[in-house]
Design goal:
This protein is of the alpha+beta class. It is built from 9 helices and 10 strands. The chain has 2 domains: about 120 residues, MutM-like, N-terminal (N-terminal domain of MutM-like DNA repair proteins), CATH 3.20.190; about 120 residues, Helicase, Ruva Protein, domain 3. It binds zinc ion.
């Protein structure tokens, strides 16, 4: 599943492609959504906003499209009138005079009054977006100290969207390596410096990934400033200490770590 940095890249591309122009066509695969078509034709997409692993598409007519891609959903952009050939099933199509954006395969799609969208159950459940502008190390530190989070194992906490939205499996591994922490540690038992290092890594690692990486499938160490130090590198030498990177299962997901740096 794509993580915060990849979701934000998708929203950037959609903002550039379809925001700010009147919608000339709107189509939904689901009848109950298709009924909103008249309210959306001629309206504009004001902006597309990533919230954890969901996207909010805000329309000028007072509606907001909530979409969560889960594993298979994918946005594709094309020229007006084109439906890019795909084995996936189209679910949403938004078209302007300049471009078409098609959402394939996602099943988690809803239209809400924009004024009420914050009461969506998913948005109620998730913590702050890890890449949001207001999120700094102080905020993360305060969150790590909250009793509900402070008692948790880091291996599980860093995947919990209620802690911070947008973290996923590769970010978990790279944050823990960067902060030199074992997934078995718990915030409540960490010395102040270790907790500060963790908060700093939680802020910095996703931002570096967003700023410098392309698709997460391209694990090419030499051509991007964002380098995986441990993720999918089991058997390689740790870039910091030379120890062989290991892979274990943690919270039912593969976790990669350096047994010496992260003892
Ligand atoms: Zn190491």
């Amino acid at each position: 599943m794509p993580e915060g940095p990849e979701i934000r890249r998708v929203s950037d591309a959609l903002n550039q492609t379809i925001a700010g122009r009147p919608l000339t066509d709107v189509w939904f695969a689901f009848d109950h959504l298709q009924a909103y078509r008249p309210r959306l034709l001629g309206a504009e997409v004001l902006r597309i906003e990533p919230r954890g692993k969901a996207l909010l598409t805000h329309f000028s007519s007072g509606l907001t499209l909530y979409s969560h891609n889960q594993l298979y959903g994918r946005w594709v952009t094309a020229r007006p009138g084109e439906l890019p050939p795909s084995a996936r099933t189209p679910r949403v199509r938004l078209e302007t005079a300049a471009a078409t954006a098609v959402l394939y395969s996602a099943s988690d799609i809803e239209l809400w009054p924009s004024a009420d969208i914050e009461s969506h159950p998913f948005l109620q459940r998730i913590g702050p977006d890890v890449l949001s502008d207001g999120l700094d190390a102080q905020t993360v530190l305060a969150r790590l100290r909250q009793p509900d989070f402070a008692r948790r194992r880091l291996g599980a906490l860093l995947l919990d969207q209620a802690f911070l939205a947008g973290l996923g499996n590769y970010l978990r591994a790279e944050i823990l390596w960067s902060a030199r922490l074992s997934p078995e540690r718990r915030p409540a038992h960490l010395p102040t410096e270790a907790l500060a290092a963790l908060a700093g890594a939680i802020v910095d690692v996703p931002r570096l990934s967003y700023a410098t990486r392309g698709a997460i499938e391209k694990v090419q160490h030499h051509d991007a400033a964002f380098e995986f130090h441990v993720f999918k590198r089991e058997g390689d030498a740790c870039t910091r200490c030379g120890t062989t990177i290991r892979r274990i299962a943690d919270a039912s997901r593969p976790l990669y770590f350096c047994p010496v740096c992260q003892a």
